[in-house]
Amino acid sequence: MKRIIKSLVLVSLLAIVASRATLAAFTSEGKVGGNFFSTGHADLALLKDLALPPVASNLTQNLAGFVFNDISDNWQQRVGVKVANTGSLDLQTVLAAQSLDPLITPSLKDAINVKIFRWFDNGDGVVQAVELGSETETKTISFWLNSPFTLGVLPAQQVAAYAIQFEVQTLDNSYQGKESTVDFVFDATTTE
């Protein structure tokens, strides 16, 4: 029995020595620490003064609407709008129309045609025919309310300029004294 105990003690001592030898092995590690994650952001702003650059003091989320009075046969008007993507992500943009006017017939929204031009402003902020580029299809304002204009991708930290053209071909007596209010809304979603 003593022999068995001596054998067990000897085996135990060998196991302890072997385990200490294993613990005495060299180790090393490499670490990549402080990994940081953040999301980008989407931010559209409108330029207040079309002749000035997109600096903070010239940007806004809301502009006062345009006023078009005394519309009659063969009327046409173009207005310029510049949109800045002040975010960090590219944005797919559309121009939608919204109206809270009651539904009346005939509606002035059915008689006014709209199309959007890409505008290559010479820097003076005034829309001129020679500065107009590609154009969208023509829609009535009524149609535009349900079907926004697709404007394309606006890269991060860039400005896009658009000329919005309104026109009326003919108006009969049923349109006398009609008026309508419409908001133009630039919407954007991030691209992939």
Detailed description of the structure:
The protein is of the alpha+beta class and 192 residues long. The chain has one domain (44-190): Jelly Rolls (Sandwich), CATH 2.60.120. Helices cover 16% and strands 32% of the residues. The protein is built from three helices and ten strands. The strands form two sheets. Strands 1, 2, 3, 5, 6, 7 and 9 form a seven-stranded antiparallel beta sheet that branches. The protein has a three-stranded antiparallel beta sheet with strand order 8-4-10, with no helix packed on it. The protein is elongated. The mean pLDDT is 89.
Quick gist of this model?
This protein has three helices and ten strands, in the order H-E-E-E-E-H-E-E-E-H-E-E-E.
Summarize the SSE layout with pairings:
Layout: H1 2-23, E1 44-47, E2 59-60, E3 75-85, E4 91-98, H2 108-111, E5 113-119, E6 132-135, E7 139-140, H3 141-144, E8 149-154, E9 159-168, E10 183-190
Strand proportion: 25-35%
Give a short account of the largest sheet.
7 strands, antiparallel
Strand segment tally = 10
Ranges where pLDDT stays below 50 over 5 or more residues in a row are none
Total count of helical runs of at least 4 residues? 3
* Average pLDDT reading: 89
As a percent range, the share of helical residues equals 10-25%
- Supply the number of structural domains: 1
Q: Span between N and C termini?
A: 78 Å
Assigned CATH class: Mainly Beta
CATH topology: Jelly Rolls
Query: Cα-atom Rg, whole angstroms?
Result: 34 Å
Quaternary structure type: single chain
